[in-house]
């Protein structure tokens, strides 16, 4: 082992620690920083460092983000799924009817918008039929993952490995190369989810439901005392900011009730009047700070509930902070959340636990679930951001998505099917087909240029492109060859089967810790070198790591975005993913290894 190998492996290990610890943003700072280190130290040339930004697989991922956004906008998927749910005869039968088409859709569309779209629909359906949403939301995420491993376009990870293969002069995947290995695993996985997996799922309540039941523990009602001399009352006639009610320790003014009027979100410039009822949320133990203020009267024994806080123009909305959010690692106060989104934050949950501190001082992380009391402009503003996923059913007078007309909706689907057929018969490559499809969507105004731009997850693309450079450093210095050799020696007592197990397990572990795309890029050079050393067809090991990198069932915060989306709305604990996901991981792992060994090795 020479110095270059030691240096590259050392930097990669430090990079993984930074990703696991969530020290900072993984795309621009962690992967981008490592890429710059390799560039400055001469490990990579400038051409090698930026090669990932023009990689065909990465660019195809960008195009698929636009395609998925157009299909989501059409509304056909959610309307179709609403009909599939129908009236339940048995919960498990309904679950099966739901999961099969979800897997089918996910084989040809990015699964993140599918899960975002269906989560509020499923929650509403569950509430209407007195079923815990936690019985359906993890299966929703898992079924979308099982569908994603079926085809080349099912998930970005498949396209990333495909792009790496093309860069190495290999043929790359066809549309259905993965299918002959992953189809048995997906079918067995779905059967597990509606049988034993269903029994392992908890009966949890989501954030809104638990907050509603415990609203007295979260809300304080304070009245501007009408018995206090009007001219001497230190609050009447002053703005919220002038009255010193904006920066209370541990408490947050969420709403003002004035006779029949309800004012929220409360602005700093809002003037206080006599008899106003001020609704605070936050750390209830800090109530003493209000009790000591003259002119205020604490209301005890009120029957204040969440529903009574709403008026005709607002709604209680749950959102999940996304991986690409501009709010990450900033406090709610720093983001100016109230003015930016026309919504007040009532509570923040992390890992299914309410963060019991002052709302404004909470620093946001991916997966945080926020309960919002929204104003009339919230829905217009949320359309222009990727900061969070809305996981609450949207009332009809506040449509979250502008649905296409019926003709355009069906055109978007038929155009997609046509492109898939062209790829299937090798008439067009995936990149060319998706390029044509995006142009068609723009020309026929299925989606606007601004909407297309919004749907592209630039942070994901930056991470993928930077990760390509890191993978190239592993190749170039011989670090990948060294690691592959050590893996072969370690697995030697078990032969090739042992190596397949080691490669799959290592990729799966990396996926749970550092995201699926990063895991695939880091394992690609190791798998390729191992195949070359053993004179085995490289595609065998590459299919294995491709499926392993996408089969993320154990970790909600890091491994896969769909697991993150359903985490808060389902009221799940981290242990729920382990309990339900571990058997599924083993099913997919064993089936994949057996199929790879049978098709390419035995």
UniProtKB/TrEMBL annotation:
Q: Does Transmembrane count among this protein's keywords?
A: yes
Kindly give the InterPro entries that the UniProt entry links to this protein: Cit_transptr-like_dom (IPR004680), DASS-Related_Transporters (IPR051679), RCK_C (IPR006037), RCK_C_sf (IPR036721)
Q: Which residues form the signal peptide?
A: none
Q: Name one GO biological process term.
A: potassium ion transport
Compartment(s) where it occurs, according to its Swiss-Prot or TrEMBL record: Membrane
Question: Any idea which UniProt keywords this protein has?
Answer: Membrane, Repeat, Transmembrane, Transmembrane helix, Transport
Membrane-crossing ranges are 6-21, 28-45, 51-71, 140-161, 173-195, 411-444, 456-475, 487-507, 539-560, 580-601
Question: From the UniProt record, which GO molecular function terms apply?
Answer: monoatomic cation transmembrane transporter activity
Principal subcellular localization = membrane
Could you name the Gene Ontology cellular component terms for this entry?
plasma membrane
Under the heading Pfam families, the entry gives:
CitMHS (PF03600), TrkA_C (PF02080)
Q: List each copy of the RCK C-terminal domain by range.
A: 206-296, 304-388
Membrane topology category: Multi-pass membrane protein
- State the name under which the record lists this protein: Sulfate permease
* Species lineage: Bacteria, Bacillati, Bacillota, Bacilli, Bacillales
């Amino acid at each position: 082992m020479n110095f270059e190998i030691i240096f590259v492996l050392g930097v990669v290990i430090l990079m993984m620690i930074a990703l696991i610890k969530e020290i900072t943003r993984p795309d621009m700072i962690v992967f981008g920083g490592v890429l710059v280190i390799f560039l400055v130290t001469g490990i990579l040339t400038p051409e090698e460092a930026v090669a990932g930004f023009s990689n065909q697989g990465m660019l195809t991922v960008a195009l698929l983000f636009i395609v998925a956004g157009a299909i989501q906008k059409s509304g056909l998927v959610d309307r179709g799924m609403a009909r599939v749910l129908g009236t339940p005869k048995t919960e498990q039968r309904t679950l099966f009817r739901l999961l099969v088409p979800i897997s089918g859709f996910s084989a040809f569309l990015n699964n993140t918008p599918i899960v975002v779209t269906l989560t509020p629909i499923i929650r509403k359906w569950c509430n209407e039929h007195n079923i815990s949403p936690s019985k359906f939301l993890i299966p929703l995420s898992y079924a979308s993952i099982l569908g994603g491993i079926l085809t080349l376009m099912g998930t970005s990870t498949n396209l990333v490995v495909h792009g790496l293969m093309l860069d190495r002069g290999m043929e790359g995947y066809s549309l259905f190369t993965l299918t002959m290995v992953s189809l048995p695993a997906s079918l067995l996985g779905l059967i597990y989810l509606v049988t034993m997996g269903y029994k392992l799922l908890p009966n949890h309540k989501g954030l809104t439901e638990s907050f509603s039941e415990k609203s007295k523990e979260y809300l304080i009602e304070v009245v501007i005392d009408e018995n206090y001399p009007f001219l001497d009352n230190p609050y009447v006639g002053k703005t919220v900011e002038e009255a010193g009610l904006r920066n209370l320790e541990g408490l947050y003014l969420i709403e003002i009730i004035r006779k029949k009027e309800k004012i929220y979100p409360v602005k700093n410039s809002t003037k206080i009047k006599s008899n106003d009822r001020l609704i605070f949320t936050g750390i209830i133990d800090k109530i003493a700070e209000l009790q000591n203020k003259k002119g205020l009267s604490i209301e005890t024994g009120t029957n204040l509930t969440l529903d009574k806080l709403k008026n005709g123009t607002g709604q209680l909305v749950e959102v999940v902070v996304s991986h690409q959010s501009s709010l990450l690692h900033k406090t709610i106060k720093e983001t100016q959340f109230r003015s930016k989104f026309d919504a007040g934050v009532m509570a923040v949950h992390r890992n299914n636990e309410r963060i019991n501190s002052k709302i404004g001082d909470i620093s946001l992380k991916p997966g945080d679930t926020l309960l919002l009391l929204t104003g009339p402009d919230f829905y217009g503003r949320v359309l222009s951001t990727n900061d969070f996923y809305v996981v609450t059913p949207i009332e009809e007078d506040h449509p979250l998505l502008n649905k296409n007309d019926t003709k355009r909706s069906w055109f978007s689907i038929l155009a997609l099917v046509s492109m898939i057929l062209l790829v299937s018969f090798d008439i067009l490559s995936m990149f060319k087909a998706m390029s044509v499809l995006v142009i068609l969507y723009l020309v026929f105004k299925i989606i606007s240029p601004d909407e297309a731009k919004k749907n592209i997850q630039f942070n994901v693309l930056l991470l993928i492109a930077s990760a390509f450079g890191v993978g190239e450093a592993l190749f170039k210095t011989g670090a990948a060859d060294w690691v592959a050799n050590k893996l072969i020696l370690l697995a030697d007592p078990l032969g090739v089967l042992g190596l397949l197990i080691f490669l799959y397990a290592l990729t799966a572990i990396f996926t749970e810790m550092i995201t699926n795309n990063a895991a695939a890029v880091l394992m690609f050079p190791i798998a390729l070198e191992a195949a070359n050393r053993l004179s085995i067809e490289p595609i065998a090991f590459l299919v294995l790591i491709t499926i392993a990198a996408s089969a993320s069932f154990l970790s909600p915060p890091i491994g896969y975005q769909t697991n993150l989306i359903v985490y808060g709305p389902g009221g799940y604990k981290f242990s729920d993913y382990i309990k339900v996901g571990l058997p599924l991981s083993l099913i997919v792992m064993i089936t994949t290894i057996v199929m790879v060994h049978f098709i390419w090795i035995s």
